[in-house]
């Protein structure tokens, strides 16, 4: 189960911290992705990270402004969003998929929403003055 929280209204240039609480998984070998969907737009990938270990990846529009991090003790994946812009306005979702392997090689987290089998409810982020 995934539970996203932390959305709200913020002025341009402001910051928000989204959290994705993870529970009920039989293993910790999965990846978490953050996606967003603006009104009238398709859902787009924002960032992802393996829950257990490994580097993060970011979509170009948020690179340098957003930071994804894991807090294993709290069982959350957080998305720190700084320098927010009006175009960041969207419903943000966290999602998970099991890690894929080829032998001992673990594939990095997917950037495709169809690959994610577990979804939390969205949290609305509105950037407006």
Q: Could you write a compact summary of the structure shown?
A:
With 129 residues, this protein is mostly beta strands. The chain has no helices and 13 strands. The strands form three sheets. Strands 2, 4, 5, 6, 9, 12 and 13 form a seven-stranded mixed sheet that branches.
Structural description of this entry:
The protein has no helices and 13 strands. The N and C termini lie far apart (about 35 Å). The radius of gyration is 14 Å and the shape is globular. By secondary structure, it is mostly beta strands.
* Parts with pLDDT < 50 across at least 5 consecutive residues: none
Number of strands: 13
Give the overall pLDDT as a whole number. 95
| Count of runs of 4 or more consecutive helical residues | 0
Structural class: mainly beta
Written as H for each helix and E for each strand, in order along the chain, the element string is EEEEEEEEEEEEE
Largest sheet: 7 strands, mixed
Question: What is the fold's blueprint, element by element?
Answer:
Blueprint: E1 2-5, E2 8-10, E3 16-22, E4 30-37, E5 44-50, E6 57-58, E7 66-71, E8 76-81, E9 90-98, E10 101-102, E11 105-106, E12 118-119, E13 123-127
Parallel strand pairs: 2-13
Antiparallel strand pairs: 1-3, 3-8, 4-5, 4-9, 5-6, 7-8, 9-12, 9-13, 10-11
Using brief descriptors, characterize the structure shown.
single chain, 129 residues, mainly beta, seven-stranded mixed beta sheet, four-stranded antiparallel beta sheet, 13 strands
């Amino acid at each position: 189960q995934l539970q996203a929280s932390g959305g709200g209204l913020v002025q341009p240039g402001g910051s928000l911290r989204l959290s994705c609480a993870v529970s009920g998984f039989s293993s910790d070998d999965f990846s978490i992705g953050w996606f967003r969907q603006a009104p009238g737009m398709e859902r787009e990938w924002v960032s992802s990270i393996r829950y257990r270990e490994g580097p993060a990846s970011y979509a170009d529009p948020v690179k340098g402004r957003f930071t994804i991090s894991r807090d294993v003790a709290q069982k959350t994946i957080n998305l720190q969003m700084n320098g927010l812009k009006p175009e960041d306005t969207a419903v943000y979702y966290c999602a998970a998929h099991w890690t894929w392997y080829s032998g001992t090689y673990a594939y990095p987290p997917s950037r495709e929403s169809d690959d994610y089998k577990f979804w939390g409810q969205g949290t609305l982020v509105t950037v407006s003055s």
